[in-house]
Amino acid sequence: MPYVLATVNLKGGVAKTTTALHLGYALAQSGMRVRLIDLDSEACLTDALYGDVALGRATVLDALREPSRGLAAATERVAKLPLRGRLDLVLGADEVYTAPKAFALAQGRQPVATFPQVLPYLLARDCADCDVVILDPGANWDALNDAMLMAAHAVIVPVVVEPMAVKGLKRFMRRLATNNAGRAQAGLTGQTQLAGILVSRVLPDQEDDARAFLMEIDRAGLRRFALLPERAYVPNSPIIPRATGQGVPAWHLDARDAAARAYLALAEEVAALAA
Predict the structure, then answer these.
(1) What is the mean pLDDT of residues 103-126?
(2) What was the pLDDT predicted at 37?
(3) What distances in angstroms separate CA 168 from CA 5, 135, 172, 203, one per listed residue?
């Protein structure tokens, strides 16, 4: 089975999809076989790496509401750049949030008993040849995201520097604990861990605030990523939206970019977790 990560935050605009894209590329460049699964109704990852999905094209929604169909028909190879490993994308869908209800309507003929068992079933069936799977969900908390969280070995929580952010992180950790406690009822075992908090999109005039924020995270006893010796956060960079818009990592446009270097460092830490 692959190591399954999810980039999760209940707030939008925190570089969640940007993190998934850069992490996927970096791990694939290191030689790993990586699969990205777009579970966001905005389908931003699909827009960046694939483009418009034609009407009738298989997507992740088809596999979630009818798991016996599998992920293969909804999976595309990302071939924008030469990579030492492999990067695949399971295409997203605008109405992916409807998957739990659609699954329930046909529950009697499904290969698993509960919706939270769907992603583990699909991962075991169709992702056995992957080293890492990265799940990119939406920012809302619903039945789909509850199930997504149960499928992940660990979560990366991207955050931005703002008031009450640590309070929000603590609230997320309580939700994670509740989700883990509900695994047995859903017919699942194991626990989803916090891989780390990733402080992102730090503006030049926020650097002092970012360092104070990191200390507050440490005092709260929450795990965070170390990244680079000179900074433990991802700085804001004009290269990032340009790269994401082209569906490529920032280092492809500027290898010296500080944000690009931070994401490469993140991939090294994640690779160690996945080993």
Answers:
(1) 96
(2) 98
(3) 20, 21, 6, 21
Are 18 and 166 in contact, with CB atoms under 8 Å apart? no
Torsional sign, CA 150, 53, 28, 66 = positive
Question: Residue 54 contacts by C-beta under 8 Å, 6 or more apart in sequence?
Answer: none
- Cβ density class 166-177: b for 16+ within 10 Å, e for less: bebbeebbebbe
CA–CA gap between residue 187 and residue 116 (Å, rounded): 8
pLDDT at residue 13, as a whole number: 86
Please give the DSSP secondary-structure letter assigned to residue 240: H
Burial 154-164 (b: 16+ CB within 10 A, else e): bbbbbbbbeee
- pTM of this prediction? 0.96
Full set of structural domains in the chain with CATH? 3-274 (3.40.50.300)
Mean pLDDT of the chain: 95
Instruction: Return d(Cα 109, Cα 190) in angstroms, integer.
Output: 26
Among 20, 2, 216, which Cα is nearest to 127's?
2
Handedness of CA 162, 223, 202, 50 (dihedral sign): negative
